[in-house]
Amino acid sequence: MHKFKVIHTIKEVRQCIKEWRKEGLSIGLVTTMGYLHEGHKSLIDRASEENDKVVVSVFVNPIQFGANEDLNTYPRYIERDAKICEEARANLVFNPESKEMYFEDAATYVNVEGLTTGLCGAKRPGHFRGVCTVVSKLFNIVTPDKAYFGEKDAQQLAVIKRMVKDLNFNIEIVGCPIVREKDGLAKSSRNTYLSVREREEALCLNKSLKKAKEILTKGETYSDKIRKTIEEEITKVPSAKIDYIEIVDSLSLSPVEKIEKSVLIAIAVYIGKTRLIDNFTFEKEK
Ligand code: AMP
């Protein structure tokens, strides 16, 4: 029978993991902030396929939010999340409170340098320090064999891979493709903030990236041209405000002027007050 439970303490997680390990079972982890959608579900499905047991963490991590960001309004709905996890055959949802995760006098943080200076790192100071700290803690609590992350957050995926390598975590990091709505908008818990009109306007992110892909496929090699094409498409929407448009080397995440190998084209755009991100990776044919 499929066993499933929602637990709130580190002690309970460790107990469960210990029992699974005794039976020689493999463990997959999906870390989330909850308000789950098909994007998260694709990670859980993949984890279920590749592991005997799957743990999903649902935790809105306060230390990865900036002072003026949406920590307090971030959508939460644990009962619904639990149902989605159970249906996707996860075995455990770990839903801790902040005080369970952070001691009042916590003084240790995990900081990945270099890869975090551009893109979202430049716009959200302290964000990746918060992400890496909580993910390290979850890795230490759950001790998974594999952990699953979405390519939707491409910089996060690169940063976590580097952290795992640098800190010798014995965990395989699996990147999973972006799941989109039928009309192309990348699924995100933050899409719920959008009004009906903004939801329509938010299509400019994916549309602009599609245009960029078109001209790249036709042979365009100058980042400036790509950036301009994206900018033109986004500025057609009056309520859209560009946070960044970046063309970077997909491994080092440093900006490139001329496209010669694999690049990540990543954008962040405010639609009204909602900040959305999207990206794609382009491999230049030799
Ligand atoms: P979040 O709850 O936003 O922190 O996301 C938890 C995990 O789900 C991260 O690894 C995200 O990259 C991944 N994720 C979020 N949205 C999507 C999506 N549309 N497609 C694929 N993965 C996603």
Automatic annotation (TrEMBL):
Listed pathway(s): Cofactor biosynthesis; (R)-pantothenate biosynthesis; (R)-pantothenate from (R)-pantoate and beta-alanine: step 1/1
Keywords (A to Z) from UniProt: ATP-binding, Cytoplasm, Ligase, Nucleotide-binding, Pantothenate biosynthesis
Task performed by this protein: Catalyzes the condensation of pantoate with beta-alanine in an ATP-dependent reaction via a pantoyl-adenylate intermediate.
Residues the entry annotates as binding (R)-pantoate: 64, 156
Key word ATP-binding present: yes
Binding site for ATP: 33-40, 150-153, 179, 187-190
SUPFAM superfamilies: Nucleotidylyl transferase
Lineage of the organism: Bacteria, Bacillati, Bacillota, Clostridia, Eubacteriales
Any one GO molecular function term: ligase activity
Main localization category: cytoplasm
Subunit structure: Homodimer.
Localization (cell): Cytoplasm
Gene: panC
rRNA-binding in keyword set: no
Catalytic residues (UniProt): 40 (proton donor)
Family: Belongs to the pantothenate synthetase family.
Record EC number: 6.3.2.1
Miscellaneous section: The reaction proceeds by a bi uni uni bi ping pong mechanism.
Reaction(s) catalysed (UniProt annotation): (R)-pantoate + beta-alanine + ATP = (R)-pantothenate + AMP + diphosphate + H(+)
Protein name: Pantothenate synthetase
HAMAP family per record: PanC
